[in-house]
Structures are given as structure tokens and as C-alpha cells.
Amino acid sequence: MKQFIFTLILTSIFFIPNAFSQRTNKVDQLLFNGEYESAIPILKQMIAKDSTNSKLYFRLGKAYQSLNQYVPAIENYQKAHRLHPNSTATIFNYSNCLYSSGNYPESQKQLLKLQAVDSMHYQGSLLLAKTYANLSNYRKGLDIYEKLIVRDSLNPYLHKQAANLKGKMQNFIGALASYLKAYELNPKDLSVILHVIQKFYEMQGYEQALDFCNKGLETYPNNHLIQKKKAQCLVGLEWYENALNIYKDLETRKKLNLSGYKQLGVCYMQTRQYENAIKSFLACGETFEKDPMLNFYLGVCHSRLNDNKKGIEYLNNSLVYITPAIKSSIHLYLAKAYNATREFQKAVIEYKKHFELDNSNPEVLYEIATTYEEFGDNKKKALKYYSQYIRETDDIGGERYEYAKSRILHIKEKIHFEK
């Protein structure tokens, strides 16, 4: 009998850890295979029996994070962090969830803790730089990218991100230099090609911009984004017939947005095809109804067709609608000031007034969307402006573009489950 009890005790000692190990291996296999929903209930059962195991909370947090369920992911990473405060993997994933959920101040706080534990943590440094950028602390973000470039000078991503922040700091020449370096290291990066073209275009270096358009089209034939940029450069060089051919092709392929129709109209007007110009201008719709230049162009076209009555009407409208650029700038600065004082409703009003006066800057749409989310949890309006931003921006693949895409998916999912 004693021998039997002794054998039973030995069996229990070796069997329990072995069973736990088997369940852990099963969970790891499920996580590896992307079967996160299957892993979650098993992990919860394991935690019920071993509530002081930080690795279990970490795995559960990872499962929720992979499903983009950031609230429960954060809760489990917090528990794992309390049990094992110096785990760099836990701090990083915890920070990443905070970042993905838009809690940039807390993400920054945790990432600074990560740096204190491991100052050479590469992914942590990248995320901290992105966090600083989203908090509009461009200088600190750029400092991190420049330090990383010293360690990894052949990484085109780092040069691209440095260029982005230099642009935000109004260092346009520095931004162009960094984009050119990123292009040198990876000439097939579409977003870099578009940024190089845009920077040259903004500096009125139309011929240089056109050269990069042609290089880009060698890699991406018929890419409508590069073709739009090329047409803009040709307009800048006053080569309207060449630009017109591109815009007509884009219209046939249904790749023209509203501002594209305006440019198409300009090309028709400059090549004296006034009736086609009028059709293109009118295709801009209500968005450009009060655009002073559009009304001016319509006035000119009608006058050239000897329809002077309509010509006078549109020309008078252009005088009514024309507003000094400084007025739209004041609305923009007011919006930013209200945001800083957390008067979000007033900020939205000012952003909208600015955009009504100057709809050339789609970044304002992004600001409206994020402000709606922050001040009132107004999901439908945020969704509307994120979607409009995605349609209007040329910054394809940029941080704001990717963030807006992720928020659109998140909001749609939330609205769906609230029905």
C-alpha cells in the first residue's frame, strides 16, 4: 500500500508539469498557426490555475492583439508587466497596443521605460519615433531616426521617415535630400517616387519632377498616381496638349478625382476647346461650386464662346467667392489652437471653415476625423472624413494614410457590432 501511494505521488509530480507543458505547446502551436480565437479560452483556463505566470498573460495579450482587440490585449499586457516589469517583449507589445489604439502619450511613457531597460531595442526606437511624430514632436522623432540611420544607413525606410519629419518641420530641402537617398536605396518604392516628384514640383522644379515621373512609369507603367503627377508637371511647364492627353486617358479609365477634372478643364481651356472645358469644370460638382478660380475659368470659357451673359455671371461669382489666403490660414491656426486647448468642437468648426476656403490640403480631412474621434466619439462622422482623406491624399503608404485605413476598418467593425 505504501509503495502504491509513493508511486502515485511520483506520478503526480511528473504528470502535472508534463500536462501543463503539453497545453503550453498546444497554445504556442495555435498562436503560430494564427488560430488566436482557439488559443484564448485555453489560455484563460491555464491562467485560472496559475494566475502568477506572466508568460500566460503575455500570450493572451498577444492573441487579443493579433485580433486587433486592443482593450483586452492591453489589460493582459499590464498584468504580465506587473509580474515581470523588465520584460522587453511585454513592454514593447504593450506600447504597440497603446499606439495602435491612439493612446500616444501613454505609449510614449512605456517606450521610454523600454529604452531605460534596453537602449538598443531597435523596434522600440522605431515605435518611439512614430509616437513622437503623432504627438507633433517632430524634432525628437527625427533625432531617433538620425541615430538609427547611423546604425543602419542602408535602410531606405529610415531615410523615408526622416524625410517625412523634415517636411513637417518645413525643412523642404532636407526632406528632398532624404527622399532622394531613400530612392537611391530602393528605387521601386512607389511612395518615395511620389514624394520626390511632389517635392520637386512644390519647388517649381518641374523638369526634375517630370524626369522622376518618367523613371517611375518605367517601373510602374500606367500607374495613375504617377500619371497625375506627370500631367501636373506638364501643366507647370505649360505643355497643355501633352498634359491633356494624360488627363483624357485618366478620365477614360475613371481615375480622375474632382481636382483632376479641374485640371482637365484648364488643359481644354488652354488648347481653346472651350465647350469641353466647361463640361470638365462643371463635373467638379458642388465641392468646387464656390471656387473663385473655377468660376473665373467658366467665365472666360463662356465669354470666348460669346455667351457673355453667363460669362459675366461666373466672373462676378469669382469676385464674390475670392477670399484672401490669409483668411483660410487664420481658420487653420484657430483650429490648431482650439485642439491644443482641447476645445474640440470649436476646432472642428474652424477646420471645416478652412477647408471650405482652401480644399487643396487633404491633411485637414485627417485632422477633422481624428478630432471627431477624440472629442465626441462620433464614429460616423470620423469614418466619413477618414474615407474622404483616403480618396483625396497623395501620401499613399504614409503613416497617416495607413492609420486612417486602420481606423476605417476599426470603426466599421464597431458600428457593425453595435447594430
From TrEMBL:
What Pfam families does its record include? TPR_1, TPR_6, TPR_8
Which PROSITE patterns does UniProt cross-reference here?
TPR, TPR_REGION
**Keyword vocabulary terms for this entry:** Signal, TPR repeat
The molecule here is called Tetratricopeptide repeat protein
Q: Which residues form the signal peptide?
A: 1-21
TPR repeat copies, ranges: 54-87, 328-361
Query: Which species is the source of this protein?
Result: Marinifilum flexuosum
Give the InterPro entries listed for this entry.
Answer: TPR-like_helical_dom_sf (IPR011990), TPR_rpt (IPR019734)
Which segments cross the bilayer?
Answer: none
Coiled coil start-end: none
Q: Which Gene3D superfamilies match?
A: Tetratricopeptide repeat domain (1.25.40.10)
Report whether Transmembrane helix shows up as a keyword of the record: no
